[in-house]
From TrEMBL:
Taxonomic path: Bacteria, Pseudomonadati, Pseudomonadota, Alphaproteobacteria, Acetobacterales
Annotated protein name in UniProt: Branched-chain-amino-acid aminotransferase
Origin species: Lichenicoccus roseus
EC supergroup of this enzyme: transferase
Functional note: Acts on leucine, isoleucine and valine.
Catalytic reaction(s) noted: L-valine + 2-oxoglutarate = 3-methyl-2-oxobutanoate + L-glutamate; L-isoleucine + 2-oxoglutarate = (S)-3-methyl-2-oxopentanoate + L-glutamate; L-leucine + 2-oxoglutarate = 4-methyl-2-oxopentanoate + L-glutamate
Length: 295
């Protein structure tokens, strides 16, 4: 992925993609002092850009560092990363991390860096998306909020995601469904989860995983449609009562789920309606998005 044409925004400058390299003694690499975002641009507009930027800044604060760029500069960097690579529709990845000035658990002397890359990435699940993805039960659990910075989109939290996803892929699934430390249903490794059940939309309470921007968007769209949205504890054995299941995330967008480890679901009218509403919303000019979602 590093050997390709293009430009990457790095600490205020545009660097050729191949030259955007950092030192092996970077603190972010050794101790996961890194936070990131995943955003999508549609028709030349990054959907909910400011919310992503706010979450990036907040994620860094939770890890104890301040990104040395204003939110306006970060927003502009995201737009520039798309533009300079000739993209109107693409995926945007800002990352902030501690540098290589000091290598110990304590890292007070490190410089904070920020980069933004953008590339074309049609959907997290590629061609499998529209036929529905298959989830296997995850091999790791989402941690207790006192054991990990669960409100941050922190690189370190993705270690258990990658391990769980690899285990699920080895068993032939597209992704893992992760339970939390209590054994409750939480989310996939890079997207939140929804269940259509008893005429309502059910989703787990995000008390130990990311309360995604797409998750909140989908909840607003469902309510606009008069669909009741229920955030509640969902145990794995309740999933068989769902008529439909889907994932929601910036990279995953709205993706139907057709299987969870032996339980089969058919993408149906609720998923189709919300997938359509989401696809229409993300392609609206930003001002119209807010009007569409306003109560
Ligand atoms: N959970 C995890 C672990 C994720 O990586 C993501 C993607 N950022 C989400 C949920 C969905 O968040 P969002 O809708 O803000 O992209």
């Amino acid at each position: 992925f590093d050997d390709r044409d293009g430009m990457i925004w790095w600490d205020g400058a545009l660097i050729p993609w191949r030259d955007a390299k950092l030192h092996v003694l970077s603190h972010g690499l050794h101790y996961a002092s890194a936070v990131f975002e995943g955003e999508r641009s549609y028709n030349g507009h990054i959907f909910k850009l400011r919310e992503h930027t706010e979450r990036l800044v907040e994620s860094a604060r939770i890890l104890g560092f301040e990104i040395p760029f204003s939110m306006d500069v970060i927003d502009a960097a995201c737009r520039q990363a798309l533009e300079v690579n000739g993209l109107t529709d693409g995926y945007v990845r800002p990352l902030a991390w501690r540098g290589a000035e000091q290598l110990s658990v304590s890292a007070q002397q490190t410089k904070i860096h920020l980069m933004v890359a953008a590339w074309s990435w049609p959907n997290l699940f590629g061609d499998d998306r529209m036929k529905g993805v298959r989830l296997g039960m995850g091999s790791w659990k989402r941690p207790h909020p006192e054991t990990a910075p669960i409100r941050a989109k922190a690189a370190g939290l993705y270690m258990i995601g990658t391990m769980s996803k690899h285990d699920a892929e080895a068993r032939g699934f597209n992704d893992a469904l992760m339970l939390d430390w209590r054994g409750q249903v939480s989310e996939a490794t890079g997207a939140n989860i929804f269940f259509a059940m008893d005429g309502a939309l059910h989703t787990p309470i995000p008390d130990c995983f990311l309360d995604g921007i797409t998750r909140r968007t989908v909840m607003a769209l469902a309510r606009k449609r008069g669909l009741q949205v229920i955030e509640r504890v969902i145990m794995p054995d309740e999933m068989r009562a769902a008529s439909e299941v889907f994932l929601a995330g910036s990279a995953a967008e709205v993706t139907p789920v057709r299987e969870i480890d032996g339980l089969h679901f058919a993408p149906g009218p609720v998923t189709e309606m919300l997938l359509g509403d989401y696809e229409a919303l993300v392609r609206m000019p930003p001002a119209d998005v807010e009007a569409r979602l306003a109560a």
